[in-house]
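Model it.
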Amino acid sequence: MKFKKLFFFIFFVSICIVLALKIEKYLYQDKLVKIFVLSFLAFFFITCFFLYEKYSKYLKIIFFNFIIIIYSLNFLFGFYFLKYSIDNRQKQELKKLGINYDSRTQLEYIKDYSDKLFPMITPREIMQKESFLILSNISNSKYVQCNEYGHWKLISTDKYGFNNSNLKKGYKILLSGDSFAHGFCVDENKEIHKILISKGIDTYSVGIAGNGPLISLSSMIEINKKINFDEIYWLIYRNDFFDLNWELENKYLKKYLNSSFNGFNYFDNLELKNSYQEKFISENKNQKKNFSYKESFFELKFLNDVIKKIFIEKNELELNDKYIKQILKVFSIKFPKIKKTIVYLPSYNCFENETLLCKMEYDLLNKISGDLNIKTINFKNYIDDKNFRKIFALELNGLHYSDLGYSKLANIIYEEYLK
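Modeled.
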């Protein structure tokens, strides 16, 4: 019996150590199910340490029932997820349109492609894992970007690692932001900066999917050392408020919060960043695979999603209010003679169950920007609430804007520039 007590105590201590080391990371990543399971196991093993000899039968029943219950619930939630997932609805809509869906993963597509091609691993994905500053993709390279219309879209990066065709010393407009400034999922000629170029306004984009406010600010500060521009249009999507949570953990990005910091001259030595990214992609590219029900089932991901919805009510506005103010203050100081405009981009939910929250988000940006002489535009005000679904790809929640959405956004910027 002494051996069993030692066994239970060792497991209890081991789990407590794991929780102590990992709980902050799990909370940050919203992996609540891991905290829940580990906490239960810690409690279970310490209970066994004291009571196993007397209540072994009941403790065994509790343990096995716990496993059965959580995996049964996870299975039921998983079944619901598969039926109503965005991937499933996307394929159904494409089928209605008579479009064949390319079900290959990025890696499978790359394997079938004749030239060198990279999966879209973004600066955000790299910096969330590595203590390194990455502001753009690999220079002069081809990437497979995304697949929302049944086919994989490819992009080519320029000398600085951004999605631009022609490189000049000066531009009329600098476009900044995340996937919408990146031109995600629409054809090349439907990208916002390409539309503006076709209208006669030289535009350069430093937008990349996953960029939060700090990466966007850093990119603008650094690229301004290489190219000139008359105006800046910063596209801020709703998740930018939450992106600050991880960006503030990066010691390099945080330096840009200081208005006296002049940057790292990031684009002076891109060879080092390029080789670093190639190595990172080589080691992490297998993460770019299709959804795995088996993997999600055993890792209790479906149950975790439900727990998150029940227990977490993120209020990114209150959490990051002071940092948003500081970022926009630095933005104003770094570009004093350049016309600056922030365009707030609504999500699908802004037209349904989160109308008030979206208004609060825009009002916050508008108030801070107004004090700093930065103009703000609410894209939602230009969209017909009754037909809002048309601005989203396949009219589905969870996808990027449609061709119409990108076109409307480009026209708003175009009209604003002509004023």
